[in-house]
Write a structure and sequence with these properties.
Keywords: Oxidoreductase. This is Short-chain dehydrogenase. This protein is 46% helix and 15% strand. By secondary structure, the protein is an alpha/beta fold. It has one domain: Rossmann fold (3-Layer(aba) Sandwich). Helix 1 crosses helix 6, helix 2 packs parallel to helix 3 and helix 3 runs parallel beside helix 4.
């Protein structure tokens, strides 16, 4: 799908991958509703309209669509990029804790897909959802986060067979990215290897949309590793064991020494 001339909504636009996607999209002739809970760091210009929204809440997503349609007339591309992680050692049963991350990482993007279908009817449109490499590779310490990405990946792999000719649904699988993502997950949270720059992820995402790709892999290394893991499944176990050792060392410092 061509980017030029399109009306776009981008969630998670104030930081990380979303911030870089926003920068890259402004190179085109577009109108963008740039969404975040905190919009002070989002530019406001002839191409970008900042909009404050908590996408974990159905009512606020509904209001976002109403606002975007009022301002833009229609939404051609919706980037469901907002998301977050917990790095933690699960020590108690906490329903609200689980629900919090699933509302943002799973319910909101799927609900946005449904909203885009209803809003556009037979018009051509695209939805781009930021998934993650950890939807296919175990990452100890991030079990809740990984489970949300497994859920989104599962939805994407099935929904591809339910899309219509006028619909492009794309899923992005970034590896660990050099942002505040892991800092926000927990203090001094262990960062998995390998790591990629957010601007490279953004470039890959925009290029993938322009080429109508359903699955976008910003890291060529991961694309190769993913194939090798299918041929040699034990590779994932070795990687998970290495990350598990890192997690347990971190957990000992973060939990045991402060309990």
């Amino acid at each position: 799908m061509k980017i030029d001339g399109k009306n776009i909504v981008l969630t998670g636009a104030s930081s990380g991958i979303g911030k870089e996607i926003l920068k890259r999209l402004q190179q085109y002739d577009v109108k963008i509703i740039a969404v975040s809970r905190t919009i002070s760091k989002i530019p406001c210009n002839e191409k970008v309209i900042p909009y404050s929204c908590d996408v974990s809440k159905k009512e606020e997503v509904d209001k976002l669509f109403e606002y975007a349609q009022e301002k833009l007339g229609n939404i051609d591309i919706f980037f469901a990029n907002a998301g977050f992680a917990f790095c933690e050692q699960i020590r108690e049963a906490d329903w609200e804790h689980m629900e919090e991350i699933f509302r943002t990482n799973v319910f909101s993007p799927i609900y946005s897909v449904e909203k885009m279908r209803v809003a556009n009817g037979k018009r051509k449109y695209a939805v781009v959802i930021t998934c993650s490499a950890v939807s296919e590779v175990p990452l100890p310490g991030y079990s809740l986060y990984c489970s949300t990405k497994h859920a989104i990946n599962g939805f994407g792999r099935v929904f591809q067979y339910e899309t219509r000719k006028n619909e492009l649904i794309s899923f992005v699988y970034p590896i660990a990215t050099k942002t505040n993502f892991f800092t926000n997950a927990a203090q001094k949270a262990p960062v998995p290897w390998p790591v990629q720059a957010p601007d490279k992820v953004a470039k890959s995402v925009v290029r993938g949309v322009e080429k109508d790709r359903h699955f976008i892999y910003p890291s060529k290394a991961y694309a190769v590793i993913r194939t090798l893991n299918r041929i040699f499944p034990f590779n994932s176990s070795v990687y998970a064991k290495i990350q598990s050792n890192k997690f347990h060392r971190w957990a000992h410092s973060a939990y045991d020494l402060h309990s």
